[in-house]
Amino acid sequence: MTSISANNKSPKKIPTFLLPWLDVLAIGTWGILMIKYWLTGKLYLLIHPDFFWLVIAGGFGLLALSVFKTVELLSQLKKKPSNLPAPNVQHLSVFPPGIGSSLLLITALLGLAIEPQVFSSQTALDRGITDFVSLTRSQPQSFRSNTRPEDRSIIDWVRTLNVYPEPDAYTGQKVKVQGFVIHPPNYSEEYIIIARFILTCCAADAYPVGLPVKLAQNRSAYPSDTWLEIEGEMITTNLGNKRQLTIEAQTLTNIPKPKNPYDY
Amino acid sequence: MNQINQAFTIFLSLLVEAIPFLLLGVLFSGLLLLFVDEAKLVKMMPRNPFLGALAGSSIGFLFPVCECGNVPVARRLLMQGVPAPVAIGFLLAAPTINPIVIWATWTAFREQPEIVVLRVVLSLTIATIIGCVFSAQADLRPVLQPALARAMPRYIPPGKKAIDSGETASMLLQSGTYLLGQPGAPLRLDSTMLQPNLIAANSAKKPLADKLRLLADNTIQELRELGAVLVIGSAIAAIIQVAAPRDFILSLGQGPVTSILAMMVLAAVVSICSTVDSFFALSFASVFTSGSLLAFLVFGPMIDLKGIGLMLFLFKKKAIIYLFALAAQLTFLFTLLINLHFS
């Protein structure tokens, strides 16, 4: 019971008066981390923009909580020990004192120190390159056939294909898409995949979608993970024993990695 | 290196996504503690196992929190002496049967409203059945963590009045420190008994500033404990997700039986919050059977790696294994029925 340990002056392993400060520090650091992700745009790498407001509100909530507690702890310090208000209520805990807060604090500090990374082409290969096109939402949120083909993003193309999968239907249509380069091991040297990761909630559920691209030269000129804007026309090719809608590239432009590399 | 980075990013994204919900859940739990007379709420709960489980499952509607948030609320309810079926029903169904989750599922599956309806119906059914099963263990304390069991009020067999002379007399035979409050009802100063009693007894009279201070303290304490478990759970989920290629899990997902099993494994591994898991399931909608999507949406909020970590606050391992086995079997049976007969 805290009241007894407060009156009892016997020395402890961890100085008890430090424990509330550890809590304040852990919670405050998490608040700072979440707000930092928001301000630096790194939140785009972690979660879907629909949930940004939750993280922002959560970050400010945690910060407010730690400020509130700091003010209270400081005001307690000024008072004489005999004037201390009623001790904190005893709490059920699984972790020994200080461990829970330390774990949270270490995680938050790691988060501040190590930048989250955009998933790479290797991740895309690991997550299953075999069926880029079939692995999408079964029900497109909107299907507008009158969309100009060159305005479609990769995910728009894949969704369109989901609704009407015959590749020949798109032959000759203009394409202009942005994405990163994947070198699938089972494709010949003139083919790459231009891909984007799709996020439905957070990075834990990111999955890749992409379209094959036919190059005029060997693909070594465009290493994996390079970001490209590709303009060209749609053709049908036979890749991996499958008839596939493929972009015949006319111009390929290197572009910087976008601030928000995912699509939704 | 790539894999470590990837695991770390997944780990952070799970935490960043879950911590706001955890904060929300802990705040709700604290508000319940300070501003709601739980004793009244607990008394309102039906004693009948079936009705109790149903009522417990449905009070999720009052607490729009996902599975990381409902564990502290369930713990609080147990400490207030809620009947076992109510607590189990609440624990299993509340993450699904609440307005935010239903709204999110509806947003994701607008085109397949049957998924939304079946998710609610199946969760309610399974939670009620398991609640009824656990009613056989009327006194839950033997399967609870000792600290929580001590904090619970004395078990009173059905039919006996809650506070009678025998009850107080037996208290006198126990050692410990007591606060003499109302005549005839000494308040035992057991270390873990103190919290709910002290606060519940005084909450009505406390000024708002004190209530806020207690709310802040309670929030910090729960965040510290549950947050640390969440960190461990998310780390495990991230490591497994990177170590076991999702491709492998997906390749299991074509048949009516294997797809359900695969999605249940995925639900347990990914540990995604029930508030947002329907969007996650949506990304599998094209390759997986409706039954398996439902299995993901029903089973995930009940049992997953992160949730098991949190449930260790409430139950001993044995009880968690029972819960896990019952929930898994019932989910499997119901969704297999859907796969075989309705799709």
Quick summary:
The complex is a heterodimer of chains A (264) and B (343). Chain A is an alpha/beta fold. Chain A has helices at 2-7, 19-39, 43-46, 52-78, 99-113, 121-126, 154-163, and strands at residues 174-182, 191-198, 207-214, 227-239, 242-254, 262-263.
Task: Give the SSE map.
The complex is a heterodimer of chains A (264) and B (343).
Chain A lengths: L1 H6 L11 H21 L3 H4 L5 H27 L20 H15 L7 H6 L27 H10 L10 E9 L8 E8 L8 E8 L12 E13 L2 E13 L7 E2 L1
Parallel strand pairs in A: 2-6, 3-5
Antiparallel strand pairs in A: 1-2, 1-4, 2-3, 4-5
Chain B lengths: L1 H34 L2 H7 L4 H10 L8 H13 L4 H10 L5 H10 L4 H22 L11 H6 L13 H8 L5 E2 L7 E2 L5 H9 L5 H36 L2 H6 L4 H15 L6 H6 L7 H13 L2 H7 L5 H25 L2
Antiparallel strand pairs in B: 1-2
Helix pairs in contact in B: 1-4, 1-11, 3-5, 3-7, 4-5, 5-7, 7-15, 7-17, 11-16, 13-15, 13-17, 15-17
Biggest interface found: A-B, 67 and 68 residues
- Average pLDDT number of chain B: 75
Helix content of chain A: 25-40%
Assembly form of the protein: heterodimer
Rg of chain B is 21 Å
Query: Strand tally of chain A, please?
Result: 6
Question: Rg of chain A to the nearest angstrom?
Answer: 27 Å
What shape does the CA trace of chain A take?
elongated
Low-confidence stretches of chain B: 160-178, 181-202
Strand percentage of chain B: under 5%
Terminal CA distance of chain B reads 43 Å
Mean pLDDT of chain A: 79
Structural class assignment of chain B: mainly alpha
By DSSP (H or I, 4+ residues per run), the number of helices of chain B equals 17
The count of strands of chain B amounts to 2
Task: Give the overall silhouette of chain B.
Answer: globular
Return residue spans of chain A where pLDDT drops below 50 for at least 5 consecutive residues.
Answer: 1-12, 82-92, 130-142
